Amino acid sequence: MIRLHKWKLLAIALATNLTILLSLAVGDIKPWASIDWLDIIGEGGVSLLAALWLVFTLNSRPTGSVTNLLSLGLALIFVGTFQDLMDEVIAIEDGLFLRGGIESTLMPLGLVVLTVGLYHWHKEQLLFTEQRRKREQDFREYRMQDTLTGLGDARFLKQQLEALQTQCQLNHQPLTLLLLDLDHFDQTNRRFGHREGDRLLRELGELILLNLRRCDLLCRYAGDRFAVVLPNTGELLAGQLAEQLTRAVEHFAYKTNQGETVYHSVSTGMATGADKSEDSAQALIERATLRLLAAKDLKAPRAA
Amino acid sequence: MNLWYDIDSPVIAAHEFPAVLIDLACSRDIEPDKLLRGTGIFMDDFLSGQLTIKPQQCLALIGNTQKWLPAADTAFLAGHRLYPGNFGPAGTALTQAPNLMEALQALQAYGFILTPLLTPRLSLDSEFAYLYWHESCAESAHSAFLRHMMMTAVTSLCRRLCGLSLPWEYFLPDEAQHPEQYAVNWGNRVRAGRHYTAMRLPRALLSTNCPSGSASMAMIARAQCERTLGSRPALGFIAFIDQCIRKRLPGHVSLELVADELQMSPATLKRKLKKHGSHFQQRYDTVRKELAIEWLTRKQLDVEEIALRLHFHDSRNLRRAFKRWTGVLPSAL
To answer: Would the keyword Cell inner membrane turn up in this protein's UniProt record (chain A) (predicted)?
Structure first.
């Protein structure tokens, strides 16, 4: 944060210092008896919260015009409330601009700038939401996100699957859950190291996203297994989509850090919840898992 | 010669078992000093390859790993990466085993190197080979993590040695915490809520050849182990006490008798057990619970017989104790 936003932080520190110095120059420190502690706590609290918002904002954002607007707005609010706090400690004669003047100009100004900033942030967010549509559809919960791929995890899948099932049942549409499992992922990990394995999963996530429709939802189930929820999709269409994804992965020429090319294949398993069926999300996942294991067994027989 | 190691004896070589956790965290871009904070381990000492740490430091490291990598798959990833690792001759005895049986025997024999915090016990009957997992040094908050990690490590190792997936069946003491992780890493034969930790395989599969193994290399590695590790304590304190009790049953068992066997006073034994977060009655009950379940499910002994062997006054008392231990009656198993 300090590296990216050092000029902003410096300017805010300077402005704060300036208000302290100016207040001291024109007024005198109040005696203990005439200080209203309730006001100090109230106004100090507002000032502290404004500072906290500023820290969160700066800490979570790269530089750019939206960040500038947001931080300017918050900084104005912070300096305004801070001057208000100074008022409580330093007695300033009535009639001077510093007595209440700074606060009543900076606060509204800050709120206006912040509003403009929020408007642009909203525009920016719409852009990102569209980009993330196939990862989260209408629901975002960062605590259910897989840290490696940025996709939703198994809990997210279950929750969204339930929601989409209800929606599809209302509209009398079928819904299909498709599971994709990478073949011989453990060998890739062993040959090229786990770092490469991690990167492969990340890139594979992107690749699958590119091949999905706008209404589909991709999650990382666990390990090398991905789950795709296909709303309004019957078995026939889902089969075609599965085929497309399988071919996409097979043609994906993954490049390791040493520049070696590695090809992979996937096994798929799907389960369709037909219209009006009473399947739970868990039952759908279990059915798809069984089909997936059967498909895996066909490719690489297990020890019986 | 010490027969066991305490929770605060420095016996775990940091470049063996703990290395996989440090390595995993580093590969996920966790700062080493964050990861090692509060463990008393320093990166430079670790890299020197000379550092030995205490089991409690290793548990603290697991705690930190979970703190910085809170995702459900951390234990499973660590398990996949554990073997072959850098375990010296013990690791060679494991990975060069010519068949599955010898690999699992090496795992049991050199458990104090290969899996110092969770002790494996191999038990065969006519149908199945069971690999039970027992607490080694302490009942810790990380036992679920260790369970997931070690069972994944063995699964992954065996698949690698044999070149194909084996139909392991898994038994977990608690409810399924991460069903999706089990499904992907272990397959669909996971039985939760069974009150013990074990994995089993049809016994016939133990003779499966390991194509990359070498009988002579494994034999040499075992001889090396005997030479260099012969004087090392082979079990954690809790596992050792449990083993004493298990061996004594169905004979008489008491705190005094076990203390006598360990050549210490009952007061010292009590104090030592307390240091490991346990007490004698708890150990005695744990072993009796495990044996009762084992005899009920594998030997089909009747409750009367088991009550007699485990020193219960009658079968009604056993049923009551069993209900207390597991929450269900023996007939429900």
So the answer is: no
A304 pLDDT band, cuts 50/70/90, is: very low
Kindly state the average pLDDT of the residues A21-35.
82
Which of B27, B159, B183 shows the shortest C-beta gap to A222?
B183
Residues of B in contact with A302 (CB under 8 A): 164-167
* Under 8 Å between Cβ of B162 and B208: yes
B276 sits in which H/E element: none
Q: Do B167 and A181 touch (CB under 8 A)?
A: no
Contact B73 A198 (CB under 8 A): no
Domain identity same for A92 and A150: no
Last residue of a domain, one of A72, A103, A131: A131
Q: Which fold has domain B4-229?
A: H-NOX domain (3.90.1520)
The Cα A171–Cα B256 span in angstroms is 72
What's chain B's average pLDDT? 90
Q: Name the residue facing A222 among B167, B184, B188 (closest C-beta).
A: B184
* CATH code of residue A149: 3.30.70.270
Quick one: which H or E segment has residue A254? strand A254-255
User: Tens of pLDDT along A252-269?
Assistant: 999 998 889 999 999 999
Q: Where are the domains of chain B?
A: 4-229, 249-332
Mean pLDDT of B263-267: 92
Q: Are residues A96 and A147 in the same domain?
A: no
Q: Give the whole-angstrom CA distance, residue B169 versus residue B157.
A: 15
pLDDT in tens, A79-136: 888 888 888 888 877 777 777 777 888 889 999 999 999 999 999 988 888 878 878 7
Please answer yes or no on whether A300 and B81 come within 8 Å at the CB atom.
no
Cβ-defined contact of A300 to B71 (cutoff 8 Å): no
